[in-house]
C-alpha cells in the first residue's frame, strides 16, 4: 500500500499535499496530470471532456470549473452563487490574460510543464497554493494556459455548512493574496475590497452628511449590484443553476460583509485551521 510517510523525511515542514502531488507525478509516465480533491464528485464524461479538449488544443495548463452542490441553508446557497461568479471571473481572466486564477479541485497540466517550472519549488513551505502558485509559475514561463468552459467538465463539492467552517476557509484563501506574483490578481482583489470598504465606511459617516455621503454609498451599491447581477445571472444560467438567483439580494450583502471583514482578519491572523490542523 502506498504511504506518503515512506517518501518524506522525518521533520518535513512543507506542504504534504504538494509533496504528495510531486511524488505522484514522479511515479507516473503519463503525459497529462489531472488533479482533484477527495471530497469532490464529477460526471461520467468528466475525463472524456478534459482529454478531448487537451488533444484538440495541446495546452500546457487547463483550469476547469468547480461548483458547490447539495445546498441546505442560506450560507451554502450564498457560497454556490458566489462560486458561479468566481468561475466566470476565472474563465474571463484566463481568456483575456488579465488575471489567472484556478482551483486545484479541477486542474490539468502536462508533465512537461510541471518539470519545466520546477513543480512547487519555491513555495513548498506554504500550506496551500498547489493551484494558483503553480499557474503563476507556468504563466511566468510563457506557458499556454486555457479555461475549459464546459459544464460537463465541472467537479462538485459541498459548501461549508457552518459560519465557522466558512470563516476558516475564506481566511485560508485570503492569506495567500499578498504572496501572489501576478500583480493583476492583487490589483483586482484590491479593487473589490476597496468597493466593500467604501460601503462600510460610507455607512459610518452618512450621519455627518446624509446627502453627499449617503448618495455615494447608494451609487456604490448600484454599481456593484448591476455588475454582480450581470455576472451571476450569466454564470448561473450557464451552469443550469438559475434557482440560485432567488438568493441574489441576501447574497449581495453577505458578499460585501464577508469581503470586508475577512480582508481585515486575514491580515491579522498568522495561522489558521485547515483540515483539523493549525497552519502558519
Strand pairing plus helix content: what structural class?
A: alpha/beta
What share of the residues does DSSP label as strand, in percent?
Answer: 5-15%
Overall mean pLDDT: 86
The coarse silhouette is: globular
- What is the number of E strands? 9
CATH class: Alpha Beta
CA-based gyration radius: 20 Å
Number of helical elements: 9
Number of domains: 1
String of helices and strands? HEEHEEHEHHEEHHHHEE
* Percent range of helical residues: 40-55%
Query: Architecture in CATH?
Result: Alpha-Beta Complex
- CATH T-level topology: Spore Coat Polysaccharide Biosynthesis Protein SpsA, Chain A
Gap between N and C termini, in Å? Answer: 31 Å
Uncertain stretches: none
| Strand order across the largest sheet | 1-5-3-6
* Main sheet record: 4 strands, mixed
What do you see in this structure?
The protein is α/β, with parallel strands linked by helices and 280 residues long. It has a single domain (16-279), classed as Spore Coat Polysaccharide Biosynthesis Protein SpsA, Chain A, CATH 3.90.550. Helices cover 51% and strands 11% of the residues. The chain is built from nine helices and nine strands. The strands form three sheets. It has a four-stranded mixed sheet. α3 (74-96) packs across α8 (212-238), α3 (74-96) crosses α9 and α7 packs across α8. 29% of the residues are buried.
Helix/strand layout:
Elements: H1 16-26, E1 32-35, E2 41-42, H2 46-57, E3 61-63, E4 66-69, H3 74-96, E5 107-110, H4 111-116, H5 132-140, E6 145-147, E7 155-158, H6 163-174, H7 183-205, H8 212-238, H9 248-268, E8 272-274, E9 277-279
Parallel strand pairs: 3-6, 4-7
Antiparallel strand pairs: 1-5, 2-7, 3-5, 8-9
Helix pairs in contact: 3-8, 3-9, 6-9, 7-8, 7-9
Amino acid at each position: 500500500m502506498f504511504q506518503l510517510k515512506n517518501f518524506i523525511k522525518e521533520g518535513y515542514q512543507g506542504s504534504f499535499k504538494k509533496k504528495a502531488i510531486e511524488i505522484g507525478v514522479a511515479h507516473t509516465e503519463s503525459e497529462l496530470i489531472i488533479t482533484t480533491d477527495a471530497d469532490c464528485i464529477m460526471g461520467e464524461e468528466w475525463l472524456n471532456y478534459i482529454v478531448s479538449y487537451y488533444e484538440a488544443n495541446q495546452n500546457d495548463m487547463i483550469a476547469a470549473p468547480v461548483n458547490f452542490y447539495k445546498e441546505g441553508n442560506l450560507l451554502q446557497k450564498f457560497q454556490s452563487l458566489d462560486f458561479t461568479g468566481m468561475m466566470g471571473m476565472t474563465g474571463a481572466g484566463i481568456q483575456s490574460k488579465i488575471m489567472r486564477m484556478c482551483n486545484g479541485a479541477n486542474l490539468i497540466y502536462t508533465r512537461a510543464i510541471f518539470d519545466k517550472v520546477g513543480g512547487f519549488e519555491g513555495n513548498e513551505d506554504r500550506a496551500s497554493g498547489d493551484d494558483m502558485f503553480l499557474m503563476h509559475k507556468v504563466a511566468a514561463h510563457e506557458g499556454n494556459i486555457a479555461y475549459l468552459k464546459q459544464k460537463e467538465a465541472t467537479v462538485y463539492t459541498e459548501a461549508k455548512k457552518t459560519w465557522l467552517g466558512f470563516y476558516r476557509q475564506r481566511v485560508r484563501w485570503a492569506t495567500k493574496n499578498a504572496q501572489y506574483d501576478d500583480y493583476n490578481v492583487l490589483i483586482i482583489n484590491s479593487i473589490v475590497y476597496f468597493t466593500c470598504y467604501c460601503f462600510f465606511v460610507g455607512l459610518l459617516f452618512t450621519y455627518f452628511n446624509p446627502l453627499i455621503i449617503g448618495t455615494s454609498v447608494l451609487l456604490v451599491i448600484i454599481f456593484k449590484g448591476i455588475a454582480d447581477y450581470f455576472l451571476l445571472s450569466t454564470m448561473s444560467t450557464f451552469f443550469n443553476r438559475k434557482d440560485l438567483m432567488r438568493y441574489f439580494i441576501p447574497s449581495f450583502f453577505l458578499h460585501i460583509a464577508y469581503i470586508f471583514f475577512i480582508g481585515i482578519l486575514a491580515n491579522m491572523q498568522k495561522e489558521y485551521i485547515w483540515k483539523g490542523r493549525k497552519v502558519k
